[in-house]
Amino acid sequence: MAKQVKFSEDARGAMLKGVDKLADTVKATLGPKGRNVVLEQSAGNPTITNDGVTIAKAIELPDHFENMGAKLVSEVASKTNDVAGDGTTTATVLTQAIVNEGMKNVTAGANPVGIRRGIEKATKAAVDGLHKMSHDVKTKDDIAQSIFNFIS
């Protein structure tokens, strides 16, 4: 089979469609009122789930370039699951937002490497800020105090 090749806006646009298709499907499960998704199985009954990584891994798009975009986001969900064990839907939604904003900037002429460096700096600043706000919780009293501080 001949290889398909796309460049510039054609390639970015197709991959972005795949990112959005996968993320929009997964994002339906977000939050306490998140909905379930029905996944077709090759054999047997369909699977009903609200697990972001399960949905992300199951999605295969017919367009090769859209599927590449979807697989990039699926990889984010898988890595998040491996490292944290949870938060895959949130990671997917954040990835979609970052990719969409990055694509807008690349289309407007921004340097993709510069965008990546900016994302890395912003990530470091956010993590550093979270570390400064965090504290050890060892007892039930610590938990109660943390909750009190949060709501007041």
TrEMBL record:
Entry's Gene Ontology molecular function annotations: ATP binding; ATP-dependent protein folding chaperone
Key words of the record: ATP-binding, Chaperone, Nucleotide-binding
Keyword ATP-binding: yes
Signal peptide (from-to): none
InterPro entries associated with the record: Chaperone_TCP-1 (IPR017998), Cpn60/GroEL (IPR001844), Cpn60/GroEL/TCP-1 (IPR002423), GROEL-like_equatorial_sf (IPR027413)
A Pfam family hit: Cpn60_TCP1
Keyword field contains Chaperone: yes
Gene Ontology biological process terms in this record: protein refolding
Family indicated by similarity: Belongs to the chaperonin (HSP60) family.
Protein name from the UniProt record: Molecular chaperone GroEL
Lineage of origin: Bacteria, Bacillati, Bacillota, Bacilli, Lactobacillales
